[in-house]
Amino acid sequence: MTDIGFDKEPARNRRRFPGISSRAYEHPADRSALVALRKLSGFDTVFKALSGLLPERSLRLLFLSDSVRVGETQFPHLHAMLRDACYVLDLERVPLMYVQQDPRPNAMCIGLDEPIIVVTTALVELLDEKEMRAVIGHEVGHALSGHAVYRTVLLFLTNLALKVAWIPLGTVAITAIVTALREWFRKSELSADRAGLLVGQDLNASMRGLMKLAGGNHLHEMNVDAFLAQAEEYEAGGDLRDSVLKILNMLPRTHPFTTVRAAELKKWSQNRDYQRIMDGHYPRREEDKDTSVTDSFRQSASHYADSVRGSKDPLMKLVGDIAGGAGDLGGKLRDRFTGAAGGGGSEGKDAKGSGGATGQG
């Protein structure tokens, strides 16, 4: 990391957030997990002890030897955006950043002692300046939240699981941990998307970047409203079989689906919490030590309860019905798995009643 040198910052019309805590933009599920981990006695010590086992030094040497380090003389426009993002989020030290040759558009923030940001050449070529600013803000958000540590552990355990796959039952415990970390990391991506919006302060640019990740550099062929409509269709469409398939499709991923990320980010941008941050009312880092684990879990539980109640996904609607004491559970399960929406006699009435809840015609 290097000192930021705020006195040389370029002029801007965007807001800055002095002393902002990552709690201001973190997704409730991400925030509660992080607060709980940070409160565990000796947690940081244990993870630092792992640094001798994790290939962090090897990763740093690899990027130094086989990638391009961003600075004033190499990719200076990315260097300026990185310093700008750190300035906006008041991150006192600028992480090292590398550009790596890769045909897949991607970016990541890793490291145990100090975060490293890596972006691929495909991503640099795909995005314009405003879109790239949001992505770099996304990665700086990861750094501010301390996500780099857990991301590094996830990468290490994923590689370890592949190496011990030939050992009978050797991957059971590792796979369980990796699955849990992936679930957390997907939520952390939603948090970092919010950080990217706070840095770029341009929702359209954030939307364009996500659309390009899904459909490539063909913006003239895409439409934001239609893209967001896909997320609506994905969430509400199908029956319980589709809900199960959604879960199976998601399990191996570290990132949420792109349309879902876009819909989540737009929803947050219209939220009162976002406007309060923009008005200068947000949690400060100096208050982090007083954060209550119980309150964070309560907020997370409240968020999930609201998500279940407001979800149009057939499985989530069924969970809401069960929680609300809905009767004829067997009939509802049968109808929603088969997609039944009508029929004759009393059985037809039951099917029609549950079919309306699936959102199918």
Question: How would you describe this protein?
Answer:
- The chain has helices at 28-39, 43-49, 56-66, 76-88, 121-126, 129-145, 147-163, 172-200, 203-215, 224-236, 240-250, 258-269, 272-278, 293-310, 314-323, 329-338, 345-358; strands at 2-3, 68-69, 93-94, 96-100, 107-110, 116-120.
- The protein is built from 17 helices and six strands.
- The protein has 361 residues and is mainly alpha-helical.
- Mean pLDDT is 76; it is low at 2-11 and 341-361.
- The strands form two sheets. Strands 2-4-6-5 form a four-stranded mixed beta sheet, sandwiched between helices. A two-stranded antiparallel sheet has the order 1-3.
- The radius of gyration over CA amounts to 22 Å
Order of helix and strand elements from N to C terminus: EHHHEHEEEEHHHHHHHHHHHHH
Strand order of the largest sheet: 2-4-6-5
Describe the sheet with the most strands: 4 strands, mixed
Quote the distance from N terminus to C terminus. Answer: 57 Å
Low-confidence stretches: 2-11, 341-361
Overall pLDDT score? 76
Task: Please estimate the helix content.
Answer: 55-70%
What coarse outline follows from CA principal-axis ratios? globular
Strands, total number: 6
Count of individual helical segments:
17
Secondary structure category: mainly alpha
Strand content is: 5-15%
